[in-house]
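Lecture 7, part 2: worked example. A protein chain together with glutamic acid.
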Amino acid sequence: MCGIFAYLNYNVNRERRYILQVLFNGLRRLEYRGYDSAGIAIDSDPKALPQRSSASDSDPPPIVFRQEGNIESLVKSVYQDVAKLELSMEASFSTHAGIAHTRWATHGEPAPRNSHPQSSGAGNEFLVVHNGVITNYEVLKETLIRHGYTFESETDTEVIPKLAKYVYDKANEAAGGQVVTFSQVVLEVMRHLEGAYALIFKSSHYPNELIACKRGSPLLLGVKVS
Ligand code: GLU
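Predicted complex, written out as structure tokens:
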């Protein structure tokens, strides 16, 4: 069965190798029925603190890995891509926000472009993993296309990150700066969505934050304090 999983470590140093393992194990625990593809998004290497002007504009965008097939195919391709991208497995993160997904396609064939996380576009400003179906996605897609958005997948899900970017840009344009919180963006997006869903959002504009929300689908939140 399709499933969403996220992992946020906060104020505790973890290497990328460990973070990837947590995400893969989260997906493996959801692996009790059929699914056709899988994907994850992880943070890029953070820049050294003295080079930063602000939290959101200095770090490179999150990195997305998507693969058709089972979780072990994803694991294999992630390790290959990590090597190609020359990302260090030993890179250490004191805060890290990762999201993961196993997909059971409802809209669009199983293929990397239709796998999740789905993205708002270049730069991965907003990324979403989704369990469920958005029943009014066609009308949302038409509206977003009219506003200049181009779509890469056939999924119902892709409207969600694109709508988040639209809401974010509109709010900030009007105010002339970043005024909305991540949860305000997500609440506004939810107002437009019909159907059943559990979602996790990740955004380059809100590093070190994830937003989870649901309507209809189940979602569990676990907190570990060490
Ligand atoms: N409807 C979405 C899709 O087809 C999500 C399916 C799922 O819950 O895995 O991509």
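The pocket of glutamic acid is lined by residues 2, 103-108, 130-133, 155-157 (CB under 6 Å). The helical segments are 16-29, 55-58, 71-84, 137-146, 159-175, 182-192. Keep this in mind for problem set question 3.
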